[in-house]
Amino acid sequence: MFATLLTLIGRRLLLSILILLLVSVLLFIVLRALPFDPAAMSLPPNATLAEIEAKRLEMGLNLPLPQQYLIWLSHVLHGDFGSSIQFRRGVLGLVTSTLPATIELAVLAMLIASALGLAGGLTLFHVRGTAKEPIMDLGTVVLLSLPEFLWALFLILVVGVALHWLPFTGRIDPNMRLPVTTGFLLIDSWIAGRPDIFKSAVEHLILPSLALGIAFSPAIMRVLRSSLIDVYQEDYIHLARLRGLGEKRILLRHALKNAALPTLSLMGVQFGFLFGGTLLVEVIFSYPGLGNLMVDAVRNADLPIIQAVGLTYCIVVLSINTVVDSLYLILNPKLRLR
Amino acid sequence: MTIEIERRALLQMLGLGAIGSAAIGVSWPAQAQQADAVTIGWPSDVPSWDPNQRFTPDAQHLYKLVFDQPLDQNPKLELIPHLIKKWEMAPDAKSLKIELRDDVVFHNGIKMTTEDFRYTFFERIKAGHAVDTKNSWRNVADIEIASPTQCVMKFASPVPTAPQWLAFLGSFVVPKKYMEEVGVEKFREKPIGTGPYKLVDYQLNARIILERNEQYWGPKPKLKRVTIEIIKDPSARVAAIQSGQVDLTINVPVREVVRLEREPTLAGEINPITRVMLLQCRNDQGFADQNVRLAAHHAIDKAALSKAFFNNAAVPLSVPVTPGTPGFPADYKFSYDPETAKSLLTKSGFSSSKPAKIKFGSTNGQFPSDYDIARAIQQMWKKVGIDAELETIEYAKYFELNRGGKLPDATLYSWDNATGDPEIFSGYLLNTKMPFSAFKDPAVGDKIGKLFGVTDYQARVQGYKDAVKFAVDYGATIPLLQSVQTVVRKKKLSYEKFGNGWVLANTMSWS
Asked: How many CA atoms lie within 13 A of A129 on its CB side?
């Protein structure tokens, strides 16, 4: 199995590099095709035409597009994503300083979505064929139709404003300071031996990750329910019953494991969407992550940041897909035979 | 076949989440207020901690807490001494004699001198630092130092507004020695100024924490600690002030101010500031005909716009100048008169059945209710016989579209100027040689351009009063409303109100 896994990861890596190159070409062309002049945007409004032209030459914008791309790509391969128009500092530093916050948020949100998805899927399966089924179905449709930013606003109003239970701005309490080690507050606080900061970071993470998690859970619920229904048509379930196994054991030991496979695939795809969903949620919760940076960059047409963040999203999604495929391989013995 | 799972098992699973959150021990009663501290919900971050780097009006409030400008403005926007004790402009406006205070030290304890002043306004620019001050101070030929407190700014051509620029946007004095020692990158990470507060912590797009500079040369701030929470979403700012997570916030929707001021602990304000909403007009295409431009202006009921979108707080304007600033001609009024609009259009052969067709651009979300205002104007125009095709434009693209002559015939625009000086305000807006004006007719451009060389202050101010009236009568611009700044704060927190909308933590105190 280990060899198969390595082969899969190797293939995935090669494919990922190809996809990344394609995405970088697409991003580059699309952003250059937009009617924005990065040279003019990087200067104040009262800059003269001569100054704008000089800037254009300095930025290499007079060169043919393929040549511009190759120069940019060569810089990227050397770790230089250029300089932000808005912040006038290295883009790589901006991305690496904000990425851990977004990963932390997205991972917790995915855990919440998975937990809710699992619980909801089991409930939906449990009530199928009963009078409660249409009500539960309606409930999931309602959940599906509410986007994450509405959940964000709802949670802020109820939990933050009305009940005063949880904070909804930033990553930790303003009175707390922590030296950056990894950028992941939950890890750094443990490294620093500061459970108070860990607690504060968790409290600040709950509402944004709940908003994301709740929004992405209904799809998991529905796929899990469908998968369970399919699995319960299989002969081995009937055999298990004939052997006298209890329904709880059949569900947890046999059915759930097999029904989890399609759900796992879906979760891989969902994580990509969920990562994208951090954009608005981070703005609403003033959460200093990659999404917040991206929204600012789009607002200010900061092309170097948009390119770098776009590529980062692509890398994260490809990595998650590789992990999910590997897990799929581990969980599904049939695939190892191919 | 229905499969029965034990109800208890299911409930156990569903309960896991609840148990998990209980284990975290959520106990967070949000209250920002402390006796010597304030938490402010601010809509935007600084572009960097190099204050000369990028001109961003919203960041000036924040920079003023850490850095000092050579000159300052009082709440009525009059220029007042600050780091500069005395200044004297030469009659030809080609040199400015300056005397600095001798008791100012940077946060690292090093004394501020004319060396730092020269470095900020001349040497950095010549050294090619990526700073926006390069454009505002491009006319500085040299700064001659006479002593640690005395120097003379020499200009290549007359700069009558140099004193105003010393209190404007990115004109903050930075420490020469420290910046040369650590470099610009490190300076941005650990900035040092002479301002009333020191930066103690900064998280990009999230939070700024400041502590009082106990060595500050000026009036000591009453509050020891200031926390700025960067909250970009207006709804989240409303929630933050309502929940008590912040003590003061700005730029929330007008309707929310009206709602929040009913809360017993909160006070809401809708303050008119030195910012105008106007229509930037072209002088060609659908707006080539002066009658059409003037008809478009007469057709707009500005009072109705103010009532509908700003709770009557936004003052209707006849000129692109705000009341109370030096260049405001109080005796001039441009009437709302749909009948005059119709007759002007008739003169040019247009009517309701044969409307004048124009293109109309508006930002959406750049300033409060912008797109809704544009739609209301579109309807007002329709009633008199102007058919406007409304399109959304990106604010970031405005200058580029203008440079390329691609702006629509009329564009809803917001114009801001903290100094209130007529040249920097209406002069820049209407000067055809500058990138802000869409109206390129020399009849207006020449009139304004000549005023840029006038060195006598009174003559300059009077010149602008006449020029803006001419520009409006010519149909070069359609001013709409004086913008408002909304502020919601805890009732016990007071601050000094500035005519330009500055909200400065060093003027705040608790009662």
From this structure: 7
Which site among A286, A292, A294, A299 would you substitute to test the B interface, given the most B Cβ atoms closer than 10 Å to its Cβ?
A286
Q: Which of A89, A97, A202 sits opposite B48 (nearest CB)?
A: A89
What is the CA angle A176-A182-A183, rounded to 5? 50
Tell me the CATH number of domain B68-184, given options 2.60.40.10, 3.40.50.300, 3.55.40.10, 3.90.76.10.
3.90.76.10
CB A167, CB A202: distance < 8 Å? no
Test mutation, B203, B211, B235, chain A, max A CBs within 10 A: B203
For the beta carbon of residue B481, count every other beta carbon within 10 angstroms: 24
| Structure-token match 């305000």, residue found | B425
CATH of domain A95-337: 1.10.3720.10
What sign does the CA torsion over B21, B23, B24, B27 have? positive
CA distance B445 to B163: 24
With an 8 Å Cβ cutoff, is A115 touching chain B? Answer: yes
Tell me how far CA of residue B285 lies from CA of B282, B288, B347, in angstroms: 8, 5, 18
Q: Do A174 and B39 touch (CB under 8 A)?
A: yes
CATH topology of domain B272-484: Dipeptide-binding Protein; domain 3 (3.10.105)
For β-strands B248-250 and B37-42, DSSP reports them as parallel
In terms of CATH, what superfamily is B28-45+192-270+488-510?
Periplasmic binding protein-like II (3.40.190.10)
What is the complex's ipTM, to 2 decimals?
A: 0.81
Q: What is the residue extent of each domain of chain A?
A: 95-337
Kindly list the residues from chain B whose CB atom is less than 8 angstroms away from the CB atom of residue A113.
none
> pLDDT averaged over chain A?
88
Give the Å distances, CA to CA, from A280 to A44, A203, A210: 28, 19, 14
Write B441-444 long-range contacts (CB < 8 A, 24+): B441/B283, B441/B474, B441/B476, B443/B474, B444/B470, B444/B471, B444/B474, B444/B476
User: N- to C-terminal Cα distance for chain A?
Assistant: 11
Task: Return d(Cα B128, Cα B117) in angstroms, integer.
Answer: 17
- The answer to whether B206 contacts A126, with C-beta atoms less than 8 Å apart, is no
Within 10 A of B338 (CB to CB), how many other CB atoms are there? 16
Q: What is the pLDDT of residue B374?
A: 96
List C-alpha distances in Å: B136 to A272, B24, B171, B184, B398: 45, 53, 9, 20, 20
- Cα–Cα distance for residue pair B128/B120, rounded to 1 Å: 12
In the block, tokens 């006449």 appear at B466
pLDDT at B258 over 70: yes
Ranking A104-108, B6-10, B90-94, B356-360 by mean pLDDT, the lowest is: B6-10
Spatial separation of the C-alpha atoms in residues A173 and A178, rounded to whole Å: 11
Say if CB B254 and CB B486 are below 8 A apart.
Answer: yes
Q: Which of A260-269, B147-156, B359-368 is predicted most confidently?
A: B147-156
Domain map of chain B by residue range? 28-45+192-270+488-510, 68-184, 272-484
Q: How many residues does chain B have?
A: 511
Q: For the CA atoms of chain A, what is the radius of gyration? A: 24
The distance of A125 to chain B (nearest Cα, Å) reads 8
Structure confidence at residue B28 (pLDDT): 44
Taking a C-beta distance cutoff of 8 angstroms, is the pair B395, B363 a contact?
A: yes
**Please, are residues B271 and B497 in contact by the beta-carbon 8 Å criterion?**
yes
